[in-house]
Amino acid sequence: MSDIVIVGGGTGGHLFPAMSLAQELRDQGINVSLITDRRCEKYLPQDLKIPVKIFHIGSLRSGLWSKFCVAFRVLVATLQSLKLVYKAKCVVGFGGYTSLPPLIAAKILRVPLVLHEQNSVPGKVTKLFAGSAKIIAVNFEDTQIDKKHLDKVFVVGNPIRKTIATTTATASDHLRILVIAGSQGAQKFDELLPEAIKLLVPTQKIKITQQVIDYNKVSEQYAALQQAYPNFEFQISTFFQNMEELYANCDLVIARSGASTIAELVAAAKPAILIPLPTAAQNHQFFNAVSMQNKGACICFEQTNNADQLSDQILRLDKNKLEEMSNNLKKMQKNSRKIFVDLLIKDFYVR
Q: How far is the CA of 96 from the CAs of 57, 213, 290, 323, in angstroms?
């Protein structure tokens, strides 16, 4: 049995902070386990050294049969979770449908619930269990939690990998742009970025590192640009493992505005143009980006804008503006892993 059970899945945005917190708890000598789902299994490192349970919940699609299947899997997973959370000091939920079974089981067994809300607009899991939770940990100070639950709210930030903020950078005379497409809506970046970069390379020394969906198509476009403009450099991949190094060696990030990406930008103090995913639940990515823009830490750039507008926006971000945004990001930095762990230890271990 684990003292603390942590659960999150569906997307990397739910799993990565859950995994980061689990690692910090383990480092503190606390018996911890992690629950996620098959969709996130690919993100689990081989050297995790934390017990992991994989559920198959699936995503909720339209149609009666799909809803029945998800409901049945939630029921089965809830029965399995009763054993997993039995006698735990608390269950920490990071969102996604995978969180439902362990949180339901914890509620049945009267095991204390802790919720972590990564976005400015709370997700369905947070709304559903806010009344039952003992603690609601949030990423943003302006997270829209119902007023009747504010006495449970603690601003802890979003736990991320320790190494994001500690990797040493190398010098370059290029404007180094890192493009992080994320797991959803990346096709738009494949279309938008090559067109925008094409407008910049005649007058700017650009190096772009981009996560792509269609490797062959984007590679051909950038190779043609490089042939015409030898000072242009590019590196593309469908998935990057060395994110710490990439953050350290860039001047500007272009990314979606998921909570985990924003937390990493803050830790690395990297200025960004954030392009919210329009189909994100409750438009939470837009509100995340606006929250950051209001702090002078990023530019919110809507997906309906075109390549001309994106290239113009990049040109407006001169060295002084990038430095100003970086300094504003540094003001937001906090050790979220430690803050969250200290909160859990205080509430569930110190009496």
A: 10, 24, 23, 36
